[in-house]
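call fold(seq) -> tokens
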Amino acid sequence: MRSTLMAGLAILGSAGALATPVPPATAVTTARHSFGPEISAEDFSAHVRTLASDDFAGRSPGGIGETKTVEYLIAQLQRLGLQPGNNGSWTQDVPMTETKADDKTSTFTLTTAKQTLAPAIGPEVVVGTRTGQPEVSIDASELVFVGYGVNAPEAGWNDYDGLDVKGKTVVMLINDPGFHVGSAELFGGKRMTYYGRWTYKFEEAARQGAAAALIIHDDVGAAYPWEVVQNSWGGPQFDLPPSEDPEPRLPAQGWINAATATTLFADAGLDFEAMRTAANQRGFKPVPLKATFSLSLKSSSRTATSQNVIAMLPGTTHPDEAIVYTAHWDHLGRNFSGVGDRIFNGAIDNATGVAGVLEIAEAFTVLRPAPERSMVFLFVTLEESGLLGSKYYAAHPSIPLEKTVAVINLDAMSVIGPSRELVVIGLGNSTLDDVARPLAEAQDRVLMEESEPQNGYFFRSDHFNFAKAGVPALYAKGGVDHREKGREYGLAWMTDYTAVRYHKVGDNYDANWDLRGTMQDLKLLYDVGRTLGGNREWPNYVEGNAFRKVAQRGQ
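ret:
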């Protein structure tokens, strides 16, 4: 989730010129593995082992890892006898700007009446620019605490009320108003809304005209430790060019850790915890911090092209209608500092999702009768950089979104074994729940919402760009209530994954994974697509859901 795997800087050129697809067979021998058409743990493992190997260099945008990943995906899709899914090409070029801040020559200071703070870039702060400019200079910009940085007229909430932020730097909290005081009355209660995501906060600060924006990190509010922030922002940062994403952009944006924030507020004569509590009350007003922010940010940048990989199984009766399976193939690449293991292999995040879509695709190639609607298998780039590959596809789809029946997203599959529940992230959003529910019951499982809706997972993976366009999205996976070992076992496993492996070099393939539950998940998600591919139903978002009003599709 939010990992960075980009297919190769147009190094492959025209993928449509590759070898003619071969028809599917009951088993095709590759150099390392003999694949069969059924969804199987052996085939799934073979894909994950390859994609998460050191040879793929962490599947980062723009390098050898991207080239190898795209080549591997195209070869597998050709083996399955699928058709290129982008007007005769296996790939869709995604224009991008790559920016890498130079932490050694850049300076970051916070000046208060008591002292000048110079927190270390990386261990204590991270900062970057989306402008593509080689140098960004901010001189003594006034700092203002704007609570959660939310402007939500429909909720009667505006943290910018009465404030002209032009030339100023806004400092804000992560998550939604109400979160840090446990309020069930504000926004989505315990369920994070889009207003709680870091992406929204920077977007809104840019719309307000701020010179820069800094988010205060805390483990609970962000749902991950500081090391994840450091790893995710420490390498190259990617953006769509302004021509594809014309929204305003901040000259500089970043995060500060809680210790830096506490000192900053104390120097301004403010108690940080008291101010955080105040920010959760209606009527909160922005608070000047009696301090200034200065930045000299030097970056290298280049324009390049990454690639989505797209394959299609045309429908027999309604080929103009599609069910889309998607998974992001990118991850964080390599860490060029330090010693020891420096490759972010991204086995769970998201080689598992890519392998899952490949397995589902293979199962559809031998389904008889074949699906009446088309099946699109979409492997997107730049998820870790803000869901950019799927954002680009949503603007340039192979099949129009009004003819896209549903999107089924696979990201960071569960590998802990069979569970009693199928966790649907955003349960209750759409009538796709009604398609999945009987399939889960047939596996003696129940549908359940995510255990930590405050973490905003619905907004953190590629289905979200489809949802914003009104396409019903199903993002589901096995839960933590292990059928044999119990709920505490699953919770402990997930806690360890977040602490030790998520967006870290420890996210490696493990031959000891228990893939029985993963196979159940894949077969269920396959059956959802099979059901929709053989009927005339058009799932929709439920009445009152924010995404329902976006588009009326289908009929």
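The chain is about 25% helix and 25% strand.
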